[in-house]
Amino acid sequence: MGKKPNRLRILSEKEMLIAVDAAGGEYAPREIVKGAIKAAQEYDVDIILVGNKAVLHVLAGHQIKKLNLQIIEAKEFIAPNESPMKAVRSKPNSSIVIGTNLVRDGIASAFVSAGNTGAVVVASLLSLGKIKGIERPALGSFLDITTATPTLLIDAGANADCRPSHLVQFAHLGTTYVKHLLDISSPRVRLLSTGEEETKGNRLIQESYSLLKATNLNFIGSIEGQDISKPTADVIVTDGFTGNIVLKTIEGLGDTFVNLLRQVGHVFSTAYHLQGRNLLRDLGLGSWVKRVDYREYGGASLLGINGNIIVAHGRSQAKAMNNAIGLAKQTTERDICRMIREEGYE
């Protein structure tokens, strides 16, 4: 892994250094490296690529010296289908464990991974620990599907089984994140349910509703699935099982929508001699394509732990990874971890 003093010296040359899991994800390592190179150019950050050193040297090529890219060897790899706890404990030299340790040791400002989500969560918990008073960390993922400010969905997949107290904490975490990242003074919080009435939903939702009403949050009631795309909430709270299904459903519909537009665009572009991108712009659909494309928002922040961790989409290609690194930079610059600590959860 090299000597720590050298990496610390490099960190001091720019605002921050971000570690990137170059082994995780369906399109690793090639697309991950391309996205990291783009991010280093666009966001003026130093990047550490964690993965197969020999392969990464070939892929990054002359950009290593030009952009001051660092490469750290990861001799082990955690596959998507492996048990997170078992894999993290048995593979200390995996890219996920090494990446989270770089944040723990103060070498990296943040870690971005498109690898096994469960393993990233477990490694973060074991290496960085939870912020004092936090029962469960949660994944906050932005849904940029409205014409207004993006909506944060929390939990988007870190916790399948939850108690009402967990959902209340998720609401607090989401509120702090949105408040400081998007500069919204009093984020509107809504609880995902099967109806807007307080009596709707299962026991978890009904009990969570009662607890949320008693907080000092700007809780404005429940929201149904069909209203997620409307600009009526800044934070939507749910358990990780439901949240992950919602997120993947939206992504799947987005993929279908984009593919249909491309097919239609091909027909019209042939007929009217317009490029597909120009046609979508002329029809006023360009912004919609961007809003339903998961690659535009990059990843989800793991909130409630002592470090900046971004979980990128498993299908992340260069564009998504570039945006995930951009989110890592924003989260670090806004000092979100400190803001959460200052909220006090004891």
Write structural notes for this entry.
There is one protein chain. The chain is α/β, with parallel strands linked by helices and about 350 residues long. It folds into 2 domains: about 5-130 and about 305-335, Isopropylmalate Dehydrogenase (3-Layer(aba) Sandwich), CATH 3.40.718.10; about 140-290, Isopropylmalate Dehydrogenase (3-Layer(aba) Sandwich), CATH 3.40.718.10. The chain has 14 helices and 11 strands. The protein has an 11-stranded mixed sheet with strand order 3-2-1-4-11-10-5-6-9-7-8, sandwiched between helices. Helix 6 (about 95-105) runs parallel beside helix 7 (about 115-125). Mean pLDDT is about 85; it is low at about 1-10.
The residue ranges in which pLDDT falls below 50 over 5 or more consecutive positions are: 1-12
Measured by DSSP, the beta-strand proportion falls in: 5-15%
Derived structural class: alpha/beta
DSSP summary, beta strand count: 11
Name of the level-1 CATH class of the largest domain: Alpha Beta
Return the string of H and E elements.
HEHEHHEHHEHEEHEHEEHHHEEHH
What is the CATH homology-level superfamily of the largest domain? Isopropylmalate Dehydrogenase
Strand order within the widest beta sheet: 3-2-1-4-11-10-5-6-9-7-8
Average pLDDT level? 87
Question: Could you give a short account of the major beta sheet?
Answer: 11 strands, mixed
